[in-house]
Amino acid sequence: xxxxxxxxHGNRADDKSTGATNVPIYLSNAYARQTAKELxxxxxxxxxxxxxxxxxxxxxxxxxxxxxxxxxxxxxxxxASGMSAIYLALMNIVQPxxxxxxxxxxxxxxxxxxxxxxxxxxxxxxxxxLNQETLDQAITSETKIVxxxxxxxPKLDILDLESVGKVCQQKEVILIVDSTVTTPYLIKxxxxxxxxxxxxxxxxxxxxxxxxxxxxxxxxxxxxxxxKYTNFETxxxxxxxxxxxxxxxxxxxxxxxxxxxxxxxxxxxxxxxTLQLRMKEHxxxxxxxxxxxSTHSKVDEVHFPxxxxxxxxxxxxxYYGEACGGILTVRFGSKEKAFAFIDHLNIxxxxxxxxxxxSLVIHPAxxxxxxxxxxxxxxxxxxxxxxxxxxxIEDIEDIIEDVNQSLENI
Length: 410
Ligand SMILES: *Cc1c(COP(=O)(O)O)cnc(C)c1O
Description:
Blueprint: H1 3-9, H2 36-44, H3 58-71, E1 75-79, H4 82-91, E2 99-103, H5 108-115, E3 123-127, H6 132-138, E4 143-149, H7 161-170, E5 174-178, H8 183-186, E6 196-200, E7 214-218, H9 233-239, H10 243-250, H11 252-256, H12 262-272, H13 275-293, E8 301-303, H14 313-319, E9 327-331, H15 335-343, E10 349-350, E11 360-362, H16 374-379, E12 386-390, H17 396-408
Helix pairs in contact: 1-3, 3-12, 9-10
The protein binds pyridoxal-5'-phosphate.
């Protein structure tokens, strides 16, 4: 099946008993079996089935399978949020003393999560640019993970996935890629050598901002058999390429219980059907708005990887062509002007989110990055005069008119 058909029919499992075409919200914590042996067989792994919703749930499983059909890979695990997906994926791999290399342009929440891992004896090195050279220098025998975003939020730097994938292959380091901003509509990181793909499904996957969730896609890497991943030894022997997911489901995933709720899974399953239609509009509108703003006298700078003025333009062309995502950032010269721009908008909402059908703005320096030092903010591509815009799918004329009347008020 092609992409759009897969969004609707990929691994589709209609309810056989009723014929319902939408997967029911299975609001059941536990699943009864006729005999003690049946339940024991599931617990021991001799048979598969649902036993308890912290571990698995039919609605959640249906969403996991749909995501797997869309993204590719071997197995998918839904989580309570994008942050819990990142935490679980990292901690499923590392042990105290290990090292993670991360792009410094990652999402503020992720930056702080990584920074705080030092409390658990995990050393995180942030690099401004990830490529063959910088990674060759930075990777040591302690390095277990390289973590990056396809397009940094809100730095909007473009990851050279192909070369990073190659280095991680040579060095047998697990590559985890957060593709929240791009979604499988724009790129499938596993095809470039990513071992794990992360989504905050709260954003474009859900699409209408009505359910928080996360997804861990396991590409089925063979790297876990390398002797440096000793904690995977038993899992690799027993589960082969499913080692990562097996360990996740049998250890931290189950222990922490940060699972996606069945209601959210069902909302996401409905939302994802229109992913392609929405992404096309997000990308088209963002490009038009970026072009408009780049000629406006009240704007100092516009950052959008699809503009020739962007330092990431060429890299963006390599991976994304015309469609470079739905996010852009604007600099106004002062915080006061940035605030005035936000305050005078009518249609566009001021809130902490991206990937909604609605156009959204935020001043990252005083909100999502408020906890970070000026130096850290600059590493993340965040400045006092910068506003991030997540361009929605309204009529572009209305978005531009709203932006324009606000700019006139500055
Ligand atoms: C929002 C976001 C997250 C965190 O996801 P939540 O669902 O809010 O926990 C992680 N990565 C990126 C790129 C994001 O935009």
